[in-house]
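Students often ask why we bother encoding 3D structure as a string. The short answer is that it lets us treat folding as translation between two languages. Here is a chain of 284 residues written in the first language.
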Amino acid sequence: MMKRFIFAGHAPAMLLCVSAMLSPAHAAAPAAVPVARAASAAASLAPAACKGTIYMTFDTGSQSQAQLIADVLNKRHVKATFFLANEKTTRGDYSLDASWAPYWKARVAEGHAFGTHTFDHVYWKKDLANGLIQVKPQFGKDGGKLASFTDQQFCEELRRVDTRFQELTGRKLDPFWRAPGGYTSPRTLAAGSSCGYQHAGWAPAGYSGDELPSDKYPNATLLKKALANLRSGDIFIAHMGIWSRKDAWAPANLDALISGLQDKGFCFATLREHPAYAQKKGQP
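And here it is in the second language, the structure alphabet:
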């Protein structure tokens, strides 16, 4: 039986709000300002404690929104977690081709976190009676065909992304994985755990809806829903581009969502800081 895995943790957080960070203009009080006044001004500008933390995550996709996502995250001083598969992009290449090395290196330098999304974007179909796992890769030499994996083969599919990411960036992945479509089973979860990767789903309120038809689920509706329903500890999911959505989600919604959540007092962190994953910081 298929299981779409979501995580709905609600954990308090005491990180400092990035929305309240001082600008360079406020880095030091002018020499002519008395010490007491300078101290008072500094106190008034000090960042307040967060009212909660949201964990932004992005899965690879068509990559049509890749640079926009990077630009918005930098603009808003937000660190996110990216889940990578080797997916076909709107540039005509694949997201783990050498042509994407500069992009991923830049994100590493910015301090984001990274997990595996299976190399060929492999969908779980069912656990077989003979102990094998039936899967359907979306890409690669067996793209679109059913295949049967042992636990070890499934594990290797996760590790292929790690190996490739190190080749592109010189950095290992963080010990997280996310199933394409969110579909997992006890066997796939166990296989991932056996090779050092913990599955990371998302909160019900954290589903961006960017895979849905834009005529039935317009961006304004999705934005309003997310702003109203997200709570501290929620993991949010969006994609770096969806082939099928006519009105792309990110250009209209990402900056507005982050700024709206920051206005509510929320801060952002990678899954390295999430209570459910923080104890898993060691690399696989």
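Translate back mentally: Helices lie at 35-45, 66-75, 101-110, 151-169, 186-194, 219-229, 249-263. Keep this in mind for the problem set.
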